[in-house]
Every structure is written in C-alpha cells, then in structure tokens.
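Z., the sequence and structure:
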Amino acid sequence: MNHDDAKNILLLYRSGTADAADPQITEALALVKQNTELARWFGEHCARQEILRAKFRQIPVPAGLKEQIISERKAQEKIIIWRRNTVLTAVAAVIVVSLILATFWFQPPASDNALAIYQSRMVGAALRGYAMDLATNNPAQIRAYLEQNHAPADYVLPAPLEKVAMTGCAIQSWQGVKVSMICFRTGKPLPPGQAGDLWLFVIDRSLVKNAPAAGPPQLARVNQLITATWSQGDKLYLLGTAGDEQTIRQLL
C-alpha cells in the first residue's frame, strides 16, 4: 500500500468506531505511523471530522421527530402490504373470472336452453351481416350447392315460402355441424349492401337437444326478428324476418 492508497482508504475512516478493525484501514493506520507527511494529513482530516461532528451535535432535534419517523415507517410498510395484497387479490379475481368464463363458453349448451341458444346464434348470424356462399335466385342451384358441401339440402318449404324470391345461401355452424342458411327477399326496400330480409335455417333435428316435436310452428321474438320454429321429419326449421307475428304467419 502506498501513500495515495492509504489516503483514499482513510477518507472513509471514522474515529471512535469499529472502522479500525477493518484490515485495510489497519494497514493504512500502520503506514501513518511510518510517514510524517501522511501523519500530518491524517491529523488534519480527523480534526475536520471532529469539527463537523460538533456542529451536527449543536443542531436541535425537533420534538417528536423519532416518533414521527417510526410512525411514517410503519405507515409506509402498511401501504406496501396493502398494495401487495390488493394486487394479489386482483390477480386471483382475474383467474376466477377467467375460469368462470371458460366454463361458460366452452361447455356444451344445457339441454333445457339449447334451442334458445341455437335460435339466438342463427338470428345473430343474419343480423351481423354475412357473405353468401352462393348468390343466386335459382332454388335448384342452392340445393345442389348445399348438398355438395354436406349441409342439409333435403328441406321442405311451406307453400307460401316457395313463392318468395331466393337470393342465395350460406353455411353456418352449430356445435361443429353445418346449418343451411337460405336467404330470401320479401320485396321490401333493403338497406344498402343487404341482399335479403328473410332467412331460413335448417339443421338435423337431433342435434338441438330440446327441439320441438312435430306440430304448429312456435312463434317468438329473438333479438330484432320475429321467428317461427318447427320440426318436420328429421329437420328443425327456423325462419326469421323483421316485423310482427302476422308478417311471419303469412309465410308459413
């Protein structure tokens, strides 16, 4: 250790403390005893430290400062604990909600509301806007297209519905199976870009748990459409359009 190394080390030295037990400081203090110039510098350094200490001792300590520091520290610790607990609670809530949503979205529809869910999804497909897989007013071409794509094509239309102009068809999905969507135009003015205002959905009846038995069509309002639902043979039919019950009865 040389003269400069000893100075750098002794700058950190505080007299009257355990610093003297540090091996490097011990070595530097030994060099002080051997070097007159270093000893003079070290004496002046210690004197300056004592003056600073004395000045600091003269500064009055505000009443209650110790208690305030302790109190603020405890309050800060509580805030940190509260924030940590809040974050953990929020994370746990997100996990629980995610599990609930996952259970809701991925479980098969319960048998007692399968029909209502099916009706809502098909009507939603009509109202959201859709791209027809085949645009044509030819009923034979529509049946051929659906059959070629393994969607229900052997449907039977009510006599009044056979007189309504077709505009094409699309294939929807329900629980992984294909649903035929036949699009019609009643003759009313249509919004720009809309190709039809009457829709018929056909699916294998056995694939919708609580599908109605054969009988008169069941009328119900689903979202913005009036609908008629009925079973015939092995097929379940869902017809929907804007209007009221009288509007749809005229098509059955």
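The chain has three domains: 3-58, 72-107, 114-249. The mean pLDDT is 81.

Let me know what you think.
H.
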